[in-house]
Amino acid sequence: MTTHYLSKSKIMAGLQCEKRLWLEVYRSDLIEYGTDVEQRFAVGEDVNDVARTQYPDGVFVSYDHGAEAAVEDTQRLLVEQPGTPIFEATFKAHDVLVRVDILKPCREGYELIEVKSSTSVKDHHRADCAVQTWVLECAGIPIKAIHLCHIDKQFVYPGNGDYRGLFHYENITEQVRELSRAVPQWVHRYREMLNRDEPEIEIGPQCTDPYSCPFIEYCRDEETEYPLRYLPYISRQRIDALTAEGIEDIRDIPEGRLSSATQEWVRRITIAGESELKPEAAEVGEYGYPRYYLDFETIHFAVPIWKGSRPYQALPFQWSCHIELASGEIQHEAYLDTSGNSPMRTCAESLIEVIGREGPIFAYGSYEKTVLNALKAHYPDLAEELHKLTDRLVDLLSIVRKTYYHPDMHGSWSIKNVLPTVAPYLDYGTLGDVQDGSAAGTTYLQIINPETDPFERQRLVSELLAYCEHDTFAMVELVKYLSNGVPTTPTT
Ligand code: SF4
Q: Which of 24, 212, 213, 222 gets mutated to test ligand 1 (max ligand atoms within 8 A of its CB)?
């Protein structure tokens, strides 16, 4: 039996899903990280950088020369600089490697500090610390306290790089100690599993919890055409019960087995293979003109960069608005703040200027309302005008959810799933690099980065404008379809 070398991240992958760990070891060529994961890594690095500034005398252990060198450097620092906090202190025991965010000397031992970009302590953070604690203690390092250092959501950035108060330290020593007793079993179990064939595990809630799994595309390819998870709000227990009966595809579920009306609706349409538009959808055509179609793009930072903002506050930097007149004419207005300064006020003011005094404002979901409410709270002098906008909002998603379904929507009423079924020519896949909200945020950050080449910046601005415009034009076409039931084409 091969004794597989493990790292903390491999053990964490195993705790999420054993198949994920197996694939990471044997099929890393299948890994596909989305932009959301790349953003998460970048956020994690930012948070770690700021956390380290709280320990000005700390020293960093580089990984540039590999694990063995990092372990040796750590040992040297422990001997030569015994009172100094160490960042990324690296240890190995029983062929398990861990790196500690901050190892701080304290009375008769050390304090282990794990830095996280979340705003609270989660179960997987405790497991993460348990693996570290077990390895460090096996390596002869006495751990006296374990702290989870996470973001305090209430922090308001006062500016000038002053991040005192950004972090909250939670003492999780007792819980981690308890959990660390299980670590030798995890290690043994994963090593045994890695000596067998690929585990058979189906897609489920573990694929996104606690993190998006990078093998999701691979696992989707192994699924049946309409897996049970496409049924809205279906519980894991229900899926397991049906699977135990040999039912894996929605089309194989017998009539009368589903108690939820929405699930039964989806089952029926999936079997029929044709979309259904309920007659009441046409009521959307009764809204008057001019009609506005609004979409915001927002960014949030774990470490706020603009004075007066809070961690993870949704900060609008762009909006798009299509305006449909009674004559049928469609106009378009847009705003994108590329200044690099806080974009919230300019976003609010520019929108108030173009959106008129009357007429419904269609938005897909409740997010635009949330953003407008946050702007109201932030700028009391604009609150009255912004309040008039929230009063005119019409949530298109709630209308679509009640009245329309197509088998190709795969159980989701996200506009990206709905649109290809009513206006195939508007598929998001036809856009450039920016095809979702995560990519929009990343692109915005590149635009406001002073080091971005001016020509590249201009290209990114065009991509971002095109993406947001696509979102609002999609709503125009969707309302047209709901009103008359005729799929739209580029010429209509
Ligand atoms: S996609 Fe889901 S089932 Fe597949 S390896 Fe990842 S977590 Fe496991």
A: 213
Measured distance CA(260)–CA(416) in Å, rounded: 25
For ligand 1, is residue 23 a contact (CB within 6 Å)?
A: yes
Looking at residue 433, its pLDDT comes to 82
Backbone phi and psi for residue 372, each to the nearest 5 degrees, phi listed first: -65, -40
- Residue 219 in contact with ligand 1 by CB distance below 6 A: yes
Confidence (pLDDT) at 469: 94
Residue whose Cα lies nearest atom 5 of ligand 1: it is 20
Q: Which residue's entry shows tokens 């398990």?
A: 96
Which portions of the chain are predicted below pLDDT 50?
Answer: 492
CB distance 19 to ligand 1 below 6 Å: yes
Q: In the prediction, which pLDDT does 45 show?
A: 75
Please give the pLDDT value at position 491. Answer: 53
Could you name the CATH architecture of 6-194? Alpha-Beta Complex (3.90)
- Domains of the chain by residue range: 6-194, 223-273, 287-484
What pLDDT digit, counting tens, does each position of 183-215 carry? 999 999 999 999 999 999 989 889 999 999 999
Residue nearest to atom 2 of ligand 1 (CA): 207
Please name the fold of domain 287-484.
Nucleotidyltransferase; domain 5 (3.30.420)
What is the per-residue pLDDT for 47? Answer: 92
pLDDT for 458 equals: 96
Residue 174 CA: distances (Å) to CA of 118, 171, 180: 21, 8, 10
Specify the pLDDT at position 429: 77
